[in-house]
Amino acid sequence: MYISRKILKILRTIFSFFIFCGLSGNLFAQAEEERTNVMMPKDARVVRVDVKIDQWVFAGDTLAVLKDSKGAKFKFRTGISGKLVLWRLQPLMHYRKGETVGIIQTVPVI
Asked: Distance (Å, rounded) from C-alpha 98 to C-alpha 95?
């Protein structure tokens, strides 16, 4: 009888620990800030830059206007909302496809 009570107490402690870890992970997940790399969609030259470091951007905002090797201009837009914490694009510079040109720090929406 004594052994079974001891085992139940140990199992209760382990179960409580796992519940606490699971709930705290879900509750605090909304408080975490996530960083997302901004990468070049294709080889292109920058025609115009529309944003600066530490600027808030929203999904769909134009980050820059680019010109590809065929001469076609296109808008480089953001897909997420957040704060631009790193930005390397400069006008008249050429960047390669997949090159990281910025970082957006996303924030939770409450």
From this structure: 9
Summarised one tens digit per residue, pLDDT across range 23-49 is 555 445 455 578 999 999 999 999 999
User: For residue 47, what are the CA distances in angstroms to 56, 69, 73, 86, 90?
Assistant: 21, 13, 8, 19, 9
Residue 7 amino acid letter: I
Q: Is the pTM of this model over 0.70?
A: no
Positions of E strands within 43-106? 44-49, 56-57, 62-67, 73-77, 82-87, 94-95, 100-106
| Region at 98 (left for phi over 0; alpha for psi -120 to 50; beta for the rest) | left
Residue 50 carries which side chain, given as an amino acid letter?
D
Q: How many residues does the chain have?
A: 110
H helix runs in 45-108, sequence order? none
Give strand pairing partners of 102.
Answer: 38, 87
